[in-house]
Structures are given as structure tokens and as C-alpha cells.
Amino acid sequence: MKLHLKNIALLSAVLGASLACAGSVRTQPASPAPDNGTFDVEQLFAGTCGFCHSSGGRAAGKGPQLMNSPRDDDFLRDRIKNGKEGAMPGFAGAFTDEQIDQMVKYIRALKPREG
Ligand code: HEC
Fold it and tell me: Which end of the chain is more exposed for a tag (fewer CB within 10 A), N or C?
């Protein structure tokens, strides 16, 4: 009988822990990216590239301004993938080709910030 009670206590401890886990998952904010393979380029750019390409790529920082770039898409894609030694890291391993394409589109669509 003693043993039996001990087992119940153990079981409820395990159950309690897993319920607590489920609860914390549920209270996490919903992911901004829908599950269809798209990702938030703007947010990603700000976090990953914004350190060097200021104002979302609208202004020069450590790196050049990307908005209104005179380079062609292939050049931009190549630079994002392979970077440039001593200047910019390559991101081929960090993002898929599709994601890099989306970044090129993002750069092409950049407009000056209003206000
Ligand atoms: C450590 C700083 C740094 C980071 C981080 C960085 N870049 Fe760069 N980027 C540079 C520099 C410096 C250049 C200029 C390289 C050169 O001399 O041609 C550059 C050039 C570029 C160019 C070519 C622009 C042109 O006209 O030559 C593109 C496109 C670009 N970066 C996109 C990105 C993207 C997208 C990211 C994030 C995924 C990123 N960069 C992250 C520093 C950075």
C-alpha cells in the first residue's frame, strides 16, 4: 500500500510537469511566420544584416546602402551567398536559395522611410 501511494505521487508529479510544459507552450506568442515556408524578410534583415546595412538597407553603415542598388540581381544574390572577404560574411549556409531570392526582392522593393 505504501508503495502504491508512492507510485501515485510519482505519477502525478510527472503529469504535473508535462501539464506545466504544455501550458508554457500555449502561452508563447504565435510565430509571426506562417507555416507555408515564408519567413519574415524584414525582421530577418534587421536582425542579421542590419548591423552593417543600416535602416533596413536604406542607408550606408559598415556596409553600403542597398536601396536603389545599381547592381544586378545576380550580383546581389552572389554577395549575400558568398559575402566578401574581410567585408561581409557569406550566408549560403544560413539561408536557402529561396530565402536569398526573397532578400533580393526585399532589397529591390526598399523605399525611403516616410516621416
Ligand atoms: C559584418 C557586416 C555585414 C553584414 C552582417 C552584412 N553585410 Fe552585406 N555588405 C557588407 C559590406 C562591407 C559590403 C560591401 C562589400 C564590398 O566591398 O563590395 C556589403 C555588401 C552587400 C551587398 C552588395 C551591395 C553592393 O552594392 O555592393 C549586398 C546585396 C549585401 N551586402 C546584402 C547583405 C545581406 C542581405 C545581409 C544579411 C543576410 C548582409 N549583407 C550582412 C557588410 C555586411
Answer: C
Co-location of 47 and 102 in the same domain: yes
Mutational test site, ligand 1, from 88, 97, 110, max ligand atoms within 8 Å of CB: 88
Total number of domains in the chain: 2
Band (pLDDT 50/70/90 cuts) for residue 14 is low
DSSP H or E stretch at residue 45: helix 41-48
Residue 51 CB less than 6 A away from ligand 1: yes
For residue 72, being part of any structural domain is answered with yes
The rounded distance, in Å, linking the Cα atoms of 76 and 74 is 5
Q: Look at residue 50 in the predicted model and tell me its pLDDT.
A: 97
Residue 80 Cα to ligand 1 midpoint, Å, equals 7
* Inside any domain, residue 36: no
Instruction: Please report which confidence band the pLDDT of residue 11 belongs to, taking 50, 70 and 90 as the band edges.
Output: low
Output phi, psi for 86, to 5 deg.
75, 0
pTM of the model: 0.76
Residue numbers of the domain that contains 18: 1-29
